[in-house]
Amino acid sequence: MKVVDIFAVSDSESLLSVKWDIEDEESDEFNRVFDFLTDAEMLYTFFKEHKDDLESGFYGNTTIRQAVINTRREALELKRDLIDLSENKSSGNYSSLKEIFTELSPVDFDKEFHARLKAYGAIRKSMIRIYAVRLTDKNAQDHQYLVTGGTIKLTPKMQDRDHTRMELKKLEKTVEYLRDEGIFG
Amino acid sequence: MKVNKEKLDQLIKKSKKNTQWKDLAEKELNSGGWIDRSFEIALTVLEKLDEDGITPSTLAKRMNCSRQYLNKLLKGRENLTLETIDKLENALNTRIIAVCGFVDSEWHRIDKKIRTSSFNQVSFKYEQVEKEMKYSETRTHDLKTSNKSYDFKAA
Predict the structure, then answer these.
(1) Model confidence over B105-122: pLDDT tens digits?
(2) What are the residue boundaries of the structural domains of chain A, listed by start?
(3) Interatomic CA distance for residues B35 and B43, integer angstroms
(4) Which residues pair with A184 in a beta bridge?
(5) Chosen from A2, A44, A113, A145 to mutate, greatest number of chain B CBs within 10 A
(6) The complex's ipTM?
């Protein structure tokens, strides 16, 4: 695992990303997730595979076409917010990275969950998720975030599906790495 | 959980910088409407492939392009030319984009039939050519009459 520096919002806020040592995967997680969330073929294939979840009513009655379009729109909006923040401007939806990332709920993570975070799209009942680990103490003034992955969540719990369970594992692996490096005590 | 600030600073210091993402994201976000249209076209093609049970490899063969190029196209970020869209329409035998006022025009339907005639409607093509010739003859005749009339008046 490697760490990639994505941008610094200010002296006190920055965003980094994990780059997993996976064969044929050249992107860091931050770029991989946004690539996935804006790729027509990947989104169409994903929603086709998870058609039952999509139609389960958790996100209302949505067609594959609408889900693909909405996902891309949300991802682009989040990208715009991050660009604005990276230029030290307040975005349309957020004024800091701290506002973008919220803690994972205990439902998704039942132990030391305070360091594991998620970011949504700006719309209500957003399907997109970007997962990160906070590298600083919860109440510290500096806020550094390490993106570990991201996906589309169509079920109430992360444990419900393989692809979201994988994201939990990635969060765990990252925390483990940070402990091994002596960053988390 | 305590954070070792010194070790964290060291980690950030030795991390690789990704300076490209912002330029690429800006380009994508400021590309105007074409990238949205490209995405819509890719999505329409994906739906059509599913509907008709056509594989992307078959579509690439029909379009006479590589599978790699088709993969790029199906991401929905390519600035497609009219020629490529036309190839897609012919390969899928469907209309993907339309121009205002020309959607159901007579010439388009005739043109479409003439283009598809090489596969199975050869007779229609001949009929059409015959019709066109008759039209042309009538038009020449009309013009001649008109000229005569003009000449007569001029005389």
Answers:
(1) 555 555 565 655 544 444
(2) 2-180
(3) 12
(4) B3
(5) A44
(6) 0.87
